[in-house]
Amino acid sequence: MGYGLGAFLLVVGLVLALAVQDSINEVDLQMVGWICALVGLGVIILSAVTMNSGRRARSTATTVHPDGSQTVSERRTEI
Fold first, then answer.
1. d(Cα 55, Cα 34) in Å, to the nearest integer?
2. Most buried among 7, 21, 22, 78, by the most CB within 10 A?
3. Which long-range contacts (CB under 8 A, 24 or more apart) does 43-47 make?
4. Model confidence pLDDT, tens digit, residues 17-37
């Protein structure tokens, strides 16, 4: 899943919702189109959020004390 699937669902959904005037027995194509468009938009948003969540910087520092012991500190920052 990703941007491609989201864009595909969004386009297919908008075509069904806005451009198709036919009807199938017991199926509302406009509603199916709006549902596909919303799902496609949701996939695009979720893809953006998950791809940007890995953009965090992490740095570690090791401090050596005069008695020979070491302390490791870790710092995480959002980019």
1. 33
2. 7
3. 43/1, 43/2, 43/5, 43/6, 43/9, 44/3, 44/6, 44/7, 44/10, 47/1, 47/2, 47/3, 47/6
4. 999 888 888 888 999 999 999
